[in-house]
Amino acid sequence: MSSTIGLGVPVPKMLPVTGTWTLPFTAYLLLLSNRVVYQRIKNKQWIGSQLNADKDNSGNHENPDPLFLESRCHMNFLENVPYAFVLTAIAELNGGNRTLLNYAMGILLAIRIGHVELGMRSKDTLGPGRPLGQFGTQALLAGLAAYGSYLIKGYWGY
């Protein structure tokens, strides 16, 4: 499948896997963003990352600050997902297997959702989704980086 630009020059769709996953990841990012906004509006806290700046309870697992918790869920997502998209795009542009890359992005979405919904937002913020999301994301990023390097090994003479 291709589209045309300028004088009718056909241009193939170069990143269909990366493009496929933009909608589900963006939808979940919007949910996380709206949870932060909800806490800000509900508590009339327009700036800062905690509701009560005088009392630092960011490390309190039994009764976490709701704004801090939702902000961390949002930031954790933003700390990892863009890099995975970059690695996926690099692999895809270098001829990576699209089925494999689709599985990788699907797994990443599942473990990032699990990290928040079954980990950070669970009782005492210590649910099983937290380590699964953390270590699963690290493994997936390492795997994508290694795969991208493998795909261009011929460039370096191997």
Brief rundown of the structure:
By secondary structure, the protein is mostly helical. It is built from 5 helices and 2 strands.
Quickly list its features.
158 residues, mainly alpha, 64% helix, 5% strand, elongated
Task: Summarize the helices and strands and which ones pair or pack.
Blueprint: E1 2-5, E2 9-12, H1 16-20, H2 22-43, H3 66-93, H4 98-120, H5 129-151
Antiparallel strand pairs: 1-2
Helix pairs in contact: 2-3, 3-4, 3-5, 4-5
Structure description:
- Strand 1 and strand 2 (9-12) form a beta hairpin.
- The protein is built from 5 helices and 2 strands, in the order E-E-H-H-H-H-H.
- 23% of the residues are buried.
- The radius of gyration is 19 Å and the shape is elongated.
- It is mostly helical and 158 residues long.
- Helix 3 (66-93) packs antiparallel against helix 4 (98-120), helix 3 runs parallel beside helix 5 and helix 4 (98-120) runs antiparallel to helix 5 (129-151).
Which overall shape is indicated by the principal axes computed on the Cα atoms?
Answer: elongated
The mean pLDDT is: 89
Low-confidence stretches: none
The largest sheet has its strands arranged as 1-2
What separation lies between the terminal Cα atoms? Answer: 32 Å
Radius of gyration: 19 Å
The helix/strand order is: EEHHHHH
Give the helix level as a range of percent. Answer: 55-70%
- DSSP summary: helix tally: 5
* Strand percentage: 5-15%
Summing up helix and strand content along with how strands pair, one would put the structural category as mainly alpha
Largest sheet: 2 strands, antiparallel
The total strand number stands at 2
